[in-house]
Every structure is written in C-alpha cells, then in structure tokens.
Specification:
135 residues; Sufe protein. Chain: A; 8 helices; 2 strands; SufE family protein; Fe-S_metab-assoc_dom
Length: 135
Amino acid sequence: MTKIDDVYADYELLEADDRYRLLIDLGRALETMPEPLKTDATLVRGCSASVWVYPIPREDGTLHFLADSNAAITKGIVALILLIVQDRTPQQIVATNIEAELAPFALNAQLSSNRTQGIPNMIALIRETAERLAG
C-alpha cells in the first residue's frame, strides 16, 4: 500500500486539476466494498455525498477498513484517510493525529466545502471504532 508521505510528495508538485485526478485515482484504487455492506449502519453522517466505512478486525489485532463513496473525489478523500489508518492496531489509530497527517494536503483550500464537510465525520467514525476496540 502507498504511504501518505509518498502521495503528498506527488500531490504537492501538481496543479489543481491534476490534484483532483490524483484523488480520483486513489479512490479508484480502493478495495471494492461489497454492496451488502453499504447500509445505514456503515453510512457516514454529515457528508454531502454518500460515504460508507466498514471496519474489519483482523486476527493479528489490526483493523482493515472497506470504504466507498458515490462521488469520485470524496472516494479519493476516503482513500487518503485510509492510507493513514489502514491495517494498524486500534491503539495505533487512536494515537494517530489523522487531522495533522491530512493537514499538508490543505484539502479545505483545494476543494469546495461540500467536498470536505464530511471529513471530520469520517475521521470521527474511524477513531470511535478504534477507541471501542482498543478498550
């Protein structure tokens, strides 16, 4: 899996249109989320697009997330967030400042407020899941 720092190294060199394309490509590369998992329970509230996030606890103690969105750029944002937390232990996720990891991308400055308004809710859902499982 690509690391967030590697993505940022590419992202910072790009113009706005190419940054959109990079996000869209990240979203396209996400593991497919089966339709039956896209339920009200996995829906992230407060997003202008539909976003679903489904955590899978693994035997090795890590969390693997499946996610999807009906909007290409939003799906790319979800993929960016997952680069930070994917296949880490709940304790590692809780200890990670996801917002700080995303900060260099300046998504609020790059994208419309409609596209970024759900980011805190996506992060909160992931963090709450990790906190519950870190118990």
